[in-house]
Amino acid sequence: MGCGYDSSANNRERISKLTDWGEKNMPTSDKDPAHADMLILLTRVSLAQMGSTCATKFGRTVNNDIGLASAIIIAHEAAHTFGLGHDGKGARCNNGEYIMSSAVSDGQNAFKWSPCSSKLIQDFLTGSGSSCLDDNPHDFIHEPTIFHNKLPGQIMNAIFQCRLQYGSQYYHVPRE
Fold first, then answer.
1. What is the pLDDT of residue 1?
2. Chain mean position to CA 103
3. Is 138 labelled a binding residue?
4. HEC string of the chain?
5. Is 86 annotated to bind ligand?
């Protein structure tokens, strides 16, 4: 992508370079239908600019690329751009259990929002601070048409995804 940093760059430098890249390569006016509300970069570290969605030209996240499970990291970092902190800090919800844990969690709630985070996300989305997200959808979609109106697994089944993630010698074993 060419953001202009090298592997020795720290997280703040990466966010700064991503911002520079966005300002040079993306429409910066929210009135432009091609404007991105959030910039997401997959790399080997994770960091978000706290509260940056709608408060700046773009929400910004740098996300650890761990394959298909990167989606949960992107959700976590995106929530930081909405202003959410980690569960457990001044909240009733336990740290280490849900998406907004301070470290990647496992278990049955690892892919769920805690009640605390759910409320904060709803507060953000229904408040005036999220107005940049209220654009009307437009006809262009930035993905191949083969993916339009498809659910996960309809184009690439579990076996294909498993092999994509881990290599050709692996296969998917369904949970019982």
1. 44
2. 15
3. no
4. CCCCCCCCCCHHHHHHHHHHHHHHHCCCCCCCCCCCCEEEEEECCCEECCCCCCCCCCEEEEEECCHHHHHHHHHHHHHHHCCCCCCCCCCCCCCCCCCCCCCCCCCCCCCCCCHHHHHHHHHHHHCHHHHHHHCCCCCCCCCCHHHCCCCCCCCCCHHHHHHHHHCCCCCCCCCC
5. yes
Supply 81's token pair: 């751009």
Of the listed 13, 77, 143, 176, which one is catalytic? Answer: 77
Q: Do the annotations mark residue 80 as ligand-binding? A: yes
Dump pLDDT digits (tens) for 150-159.
Answer: 887 888 888 8
Judging by DSSP bridges, how do beta strands 38-43 and 59-64 pair with one another? parallel
13 is catalytic: no
The span from the CA of 134 to the CA of 106, in Å, is: 33
